[in-house]
Amino acid sequence: MCKVLSGHVLRFCQQLRQNGVNVGPGETMDALRALEAVDMADERIFHSALRLVLCSSLEEQEKFDRIYQLYFHSQYKKEDKAGIALFSEEMHTDDKQEKDKRQERYAPGSVLAAPSNDKMGESKGFSLSARLALYDVNGSATPCIPQEKEAEVLKSAKDLCRQVQLCKSRRWKPMKHGVRLDMRRTFRKSVAYGGEVLNLVRKGKPPRQAEFVLLCDGSRSMEGIAETVLQFAWALTRSAKRVETFLFSTRLKRVTGQFKLAFGKARPKLTVQGTEWGGGTRIGESLDTFVSRYGSQLLNPNTIVIIASDGLDTGAIEELESAMRILRRKAAGIIWLNPLLSLSGYLPEARGMKTALPYIDVFTSVESLFTGLRWLKPIR
């Protein structure tokens, strides 16, 4: 299904939700999957598929029919911007001769073929796919990094870098208080004094330096929380040697480059698409994309993976389990920040959270970012 059609379905579901129809991210994704299985060129099938998935009562069906007519058949207006009539009444006729005439009228090369955006309202008779393909509704989003508690978050990021204790390196390196004498460097240094040993050089195995990968859930259910996580990601970027930052909603987006473009204390200005911020939640699919596309480059025994999400996954649970298993095997540790943990009586019963829990080293709330991360235990 084309991205433009997905954008229209998302907007239509948003209108349903604003008018009291109980449509959430799960129902929206089910609607998109249903449309992939039907003939969208037939409007009656298109209408029935959406109505069957998105409505659960007679009252919701009545609201659905009214909003459907407004959105797809009229010059729908929102914020003083006129929309387009995506369907015309001509599409309901079963007269084969009439259909052939319309196809001939709008065939490539005719005067009515492929009209521009400003003439969309006059182009009646087009199929749904043709009308939607004429212009794009996918807009970009700009997540804001808050300024509040910036000093506390920066201190927490520095505490995290200091508290993470990885295993020692296997290589011997010169150390002031090393456990062994480095005879070769000691004799080499004595050459300057005529072979007389005046200073002993010692060596040891220093602890490995941690690298961080932060994956932030930017879906609607994380609204107001994801911005705080981005603030922590920015503070961590200023404190650690190597930090990779990703956003995901229904798709994964690497934003490390946008963080690096910000110099000094200036906060980065992030630009992402609607599928990467403020949409549904596909944790498993996003983590699987990260593992397959970036895992070989970014995952190693020095990597700490930080995932900030509420665990309300609407995608395939098998992908989440497979991705978590790989992260557990390749990374030094996994920290999961769940904002719902701050609620009294919360239990990780959601299927996504329950699947990921066995692979997590540290499971805590997002609020712990402001407590100096005293909860952190040594990671393998």
Automatic annotation (TrEMBL):
Residues 209-377 form the VWFA domain. It comes from the Bacteria. InterPro entries: UCP010256, Uncharacterised_CoxE, VWF_A, vWFA_dom_sf. Residues 90-105 have a biased composition (Basic and acidic residues). SMART domains: VWA. Residues 90-118 are annotated as: Disordered. This is VWFA domain-containing protein. It comes from Aneurinibacillus aneurinilyticus ATCC 12856.
